[in-house]
Every structure is written in structure tokens, then in C-alpha cells.
TrEMBL record:
Residues 1-20 form the signal peptide. This is Interleukin-27 subunit beta. The lineage of its organism: Eukaryota, Metazoa, Chordata, Craniata, Vertebrata. One of its GO terms (molecular function) is cytokine receptor activity. It comes from the Eukaryota.
Length: 242
């Protein structure tokens, strides 16, 4: 039994994209570690709760999930987490199915335990992890990124905060800018920031060169992680006429 459990844990500790979830235990009674849900939790609007997600492999048997959470310390009650699904549809029955559960009204600076159990005809699997809301903060990317020419060779980069970040006035965001270009076959990049403004003027860029701009957003005091990069915006600075 221990061999089985340890193998499952080793498989799961480094799963990608995980945000500071502290895995406590992962078990599969059927002996198939792949049936253990790989759960990722994220807070995209501090302090408005978290969304935990996992996917179900296309080939897995019909599975029913139970998701609960509770405070790690003290005697608070265990709460059920409402589960919704997306992904697999009748048009693509073989695609992965994604499951989500929303944890509203979490206390700040408090350790929580999330317990996800997958029940299928071959047995059941369980995923138990601990997290604190502050560690899993990751806003959605900024939107509406615009790059325009400004005073001859300068560029003005502007963007809007992610609309899903609801408490902009209480928990402001800061931003980083990444711009990239190709030079003699190799790709170069510059990372600027953080900025509290939602625009910045850049000087000294090279006329005729194609630049790609992206922006990410992070909670101002540095909670959690920067968002994913926004979709790239491309611009070429015109050569000044001779
Ligand atoms: C779960 O769904 C029920 C019914 O839609 C709702 O009353 C309840 O507040 C929801 N619970 C959570 C934790 O979202
Ligand atoms: C996790 O949830 C399952 C299903 O509700 C339950 O049987 C199990 O005891 C729970 N584990 C912990 C450690 O709370």
C-alpha cells in the first residue's frame, strides 16, 4: 500500500502550473495513480475566494467527484464545494473534461485544506492539499493593450486592468511589460517595471524593427504571482523619411 501511495505522491508533487498548493496526500484505492485528480487552485480577484480546477483524462471511466474544504486549524465545519464542468461536449466526446469548484468567502491569512475525491467503478482516488489565499493570488492578464507612436520615435504603451479583478481600489495592481524583437536571427527581450500606472512612454527604440509587447498584472504588495502575459501586440516603428 505504501509503495502505491508514495509513487502517486512523487508523480504529483511537481505538476505544472500549480500555485503554492501544499500537497498533503494523494491516494488511489484502485492502484492507478493517474486517476488522482491534479488540482490547481487560483485566486483571480483577491480577496473574493478561490477557484480550484482539475481535468479528467478523456479515456477515464465515468467519474463522480466530491469536493470539500475546511480551515486547517481549529474546529470549523467542513463545507461542500459546488462542482461545475466544462470541456467535453457531445461534439468532441473524446476530449478532456474540466471540473471547477468555487470556494467563496475564505478568511484572509488562513490555512485551508481542500479534499477532492474521485469515485469511479474501479474504486476511488483522493487528493488532499493545503493552501492560503494569499499564496495562490494570480490575476487574469491585463486587457486592451494598445501601442501607438508618440512624439516621433517614442512609443506609448497603454492597457486596462483585468476586469475580473474586482477590488481595484482596495487592492491595486502593479504591472510589468515585456517587449521582444528579433535581431540577426536571435530573439531579444526586455522586461520593465513594475509600474502602478496603466501607461508608459518608451524611448530609444529602433526604427524599422518589429517589436512585440505584452503586459502582466500583479497585486501591488506582491501577493502571489504575476498574471499570464497578455496577448501579444506587434508594432513596427516607421523609418524617418530622408
Ligand atoms: C452551491 O449551490 C447552491 C445552489 O445553487 C447555493 O445555494 C450555494 O450557496 C452554493 N454554495 C457555494 C459554496 O457556492
Ligand atoms: C475527504 O473526502 C472524502 C469524501 O467526502 C472523505 O471520505 C474523506 O474522509 C475526506 N478526507 C479527509 C482527510 O477529510
Amino acid at each position: 500500500m505504501c509503495v502505491r501511495v508514495c509513487a502517486a505522491v512523487a508523480l504529483l508533487v511537481f505538476f505544472p502550473g500549480s500555485l503554492a498548493l501544499d500537497l498533503l496526500r494523494a491516494t488511489a484505492t484502485s492502484g492507478d495513480p493517474l486517476s488522482i485528480p491534479k488540482v490547481h487552485c487560483r485566486c483571480s480577484s483577491y480577496p473574493n475566494g478561490a477557484l480550484c480546477s482539475w481535468s479528467q483524462p478523456a479515456a477515464s471511466p465515468p467519474t463522480h467527484y466530491i469536493a470539500t474544504y475546511r480551515e486547517r486549524h481549529g474546529h470549523s465545519s467542513t463545507k461542500m464545494c459546488n462542482i461545475t464542468s466544462s470541456g467535453s461536449s457531445s461534439a468532441f466526446p473524446d476530449s478532456e473534461q474540466h471540473w471547477h469548484c468555487h470556494l467563496p468567502n475564505l478568511k484572509l491569512l488562513t490555512d485551508y485544506i481542500i479534499n477532492i475525491t474521485a469515485v469511479h467503478s474501479g474504486g476511488s482516488s483522493n487528493f488532499l492539499a493545503s493552501f492560503m489565499l494569499e499564496d495562490i493570488v494570480k490575476p487574469d492578464p491585463p486587457v486592451d493593450v494598445r501601442v501607438s507612436h508618440h512624439k516621433s520615435r517614442n512609443l506609448l504603451v497603454e492597457w486596462s486592468p483585468p476586469p475580473t479583478w474586482a477590488s481595484q481600489h482596495i487592492f491595486p495592481l502593479k504591472y510589468q511589460i515585456l517587449y521582444q524583437w528579433e535581431h540577426k536571427g536571435s530573439s531579444k527581450s526586455v522586461n520593465l517595471g513594475p509600474f502602478e500606472n496603466t501607461k508608459i512612454e518608451l524611448k530609444g527604440l529602433i526604427p524599422g524593427r518589429a517589436y512585440q509587447f505584452q503586459v502582466c498584472a500583479r497585486e501591488l504588495l506582491g501577493l502571489g504571482h504575476c498574471s499570464s502575459w497578455s496577448s501579444p501586440v506587434n508594432i513596427i516603428i516607421p523609418r524617418t523619411k530622408a
